[in-house]
Design goal:
The complex is a heterodimer of chains A (392) and B (314). With 392 residues, chain A is of the alpha/beta class. Chain A has 13 helices and 16 strands. In chain A, the strands form 3 sheets. Chain A has a 7-stranded mixed sheet, sandwiched between helices. In chain A, β14, α12 and β15 form a beta-alpha-beta unit. Chain B has 314 residues and is α/β, with parallel strands linked by helices. Chain B has a single domain, classed as Rossmann fold (3-Layer(aba) Sandwich), CATH 3.40.50.970. The chains are: A alpha/beta (392), B alpha/beta (314). At the A-B interface, β3, α3, α4 and β9 of A face β1, β2, α3 and α5 of B. β9 of chain A pairs parallel with β2 of chain B. The structure holds thiamine diphosphate and magnesium ion. Magnesium ion (MG) binds next to α4 of chain B.
Amino acid sequence: MTVMVLSGNSAQAHAVRLARVQVVSAYPITPQTSIVEKIADLVATGALKAEYVQVESEHSALQVVVSASGMGARTYTATSSHGLLLMHELVHWASGARDPIVMGVVNRAVGPPWNIGADHTDSMSQRDTGWIQFYAESNQEVIDTVLMAFRLAEHPDVRLPVMVMEDAFYLSHTLEPVDVPDQAVVDGFLPPREAHATLHPGTSARLGSFTGPDRYVDFRFEVAKAMERVPATLRLVEEEYKKATGRSHGGAVPTYRVDDADAVLITMGTSTTTARTVVDDLRAQGKKVGLAKLRLFRPFPNEEIRALGAMVDRIGVADRSYTFGPMGAAGTEVSAALYPSSHHPAVTGFYAGIGGRDVTPHVVRRMYESLLSGAVPEVHWEDIEEEVSVDG
Amino acid sequence: MAKLTLPAQELMFSGHSACPGCGAALAMRLLLKGLGPRTVVSVPACCWTVIATPYPTTALGVAMMDNPIEATGASISGIRAALDAMGEKDVTVVGFAGDGGTADIGIQALSGMLERRTNALYVMYDNEAYMNTGVQRSGETPLGAWTTTTPVEGHEHGKIEAKKDMMAIVLAHHPVYAATLNPSFPEDFERKVEKAKAMSGPRFFDIFAPCSTGWRFDAQKTIAIGRLATDTGVFPLYEVENGRYHVTRKVGSLKPVEEYLHAQGRFRHLTPANIAAVGAQVRDGWEKLLTFESESLVAPTPSAAPTAPPATRA
Ligand SMILES: Cc1ncc(C[n+]2csc(CCOP(=O)(O)OP(=O)(O)O)c2C)c(N)n1
Ligand SMILES: [Mg+2]
């Protein structure tokens, strides 16, 4: 193991190197660019022996890896924001085709107005496409999750594509010390891809095809079943990863000081780190608050959320995107997951950190205070002090 | 008449679901005869999605991958990259797309594939409209033709714009080989397939694919209409290799374009003046092609692209 000082984007690239990815294709977009630049270097120096296909759009980038994956190759791509939105058709295609692609997504706001700050709207808009979705909190978690993602995606019980999200700039361009596992360790954890239902030259076979209503639903049902097997498979993969490297990241919903808590805040990505310090401060003041990190968003960790809901009366969910639903995307999912339970905690949806705005300790403290006071509306925009007219 | 000398192997099965007289079915059959079993074909949404028959059957004796309509160029780059990464050699990678999926919605991915010099053969089978969705106009629909979106009703008289010159667009990317093929001339067809198969680098075929359903002609006339297309100069047969043009079927004197137009319901409404305009455009294209051929013998890079005919109301 080597400690390197890496940005989140370099961590993605090193994971791609260690995973011995065979085909990479990508198109540049801020703040993802340094991933594709770093991979280009790794390929140029021979540190990564991969075909790197330079394409004219993200749509083509994802098609290149979809087709390469269909032929049996291990593949990777990365994008952000508008790039991910342009890919949308192929995002659905990849999961329907059961291609175990891993994609790095640097979460960035969607225009207009143009904005390159951290915001989860891009990946949230792909939440119903059949991809497994992870949100990372640190660069260590980025490298580890990308490596686990390949194992999970290619696992015979799963065979689905995976997105590994990192917040723009807070991770993508921020340097942190990262334990980079040795190649031999990764080789032991992640064997070469075992091709299943891939296309072979010289055979009469069709990958993709078309069906009527008589069969289509069977394909969807297979995808649904594979998704349902993800939580158990993830536990297995994390155990194996822990055996290999000594590290794990606590499963789908790692929690912090939730025992005996009156209120728990659920966060995603980097705002979790800030929230953890706020929890410590408030606990020091005798306030019973806790924190849960939604690390896995798809499949949605119903079980973990229900277990949490059974312990606490007030839950706040901080969404870093606005999705026009009854609450934010995560808030809505948390509420829906809790609904069938016998114990119903009050759920409040918060919007915080939209478009790269800092989620400061002050903002997090306010969320906890309103949760504890009990006098909160169903949804609340943090950091909007007054009605602002942008019409001039 | 001399016996045809076509490869005996059949890699397209009977039981496919093409319409009777489908030129696109003939195009695939002849193509695979020449390319052989170690071929991977990527097919976007188009008539061929359906012709290949639904899951779990296939009408092809080779490996086929489906891809979204606009992404064929990228798909064949991905297939080739995977084969290279996995050390699979001696495989011909083919994109087999309709005119709409090539010249309109897929032109970006095609351009990307040609520019990054993917080692693959891109085939546009040209039935001159979006046939799978029910005969809507495409950029390849010719001047004057009726389609469901270029109606002949009220003040409309079919398509008012000229056909997009895909060969010129492709040639601007300097592929190693580009050719026009017509199933009505199977020996010329197979010679070009053999030639392309032996090369590596980006290659392009524009294959003429009459559609009895969309063009409104009797299904048994496909071959005859194909012959007329070439012999009237509407669809000349040529190839371009390293910038050198070669007309592969020399037509001494072109047949009158009426013979081609009158054979199809989609041109039924054309007036004598419209037909004269089409004829002038066809002759102009033919003469330019002959000029390219003679000039490129001396200077291999085409000096000028063929100019588009004026967008007159036919
Ligand atoms: C993104 C997208 N838009 C539209 C369609 C609908 N569509 C399916 S086939 C087709 C026509 C294709 O025309 P062409 O490429 O000429 O092939 P043909 O049907 O004539 O064989 C269209 C528009 C689609 N599948 N995907
Ligand atoms: Mg067509």
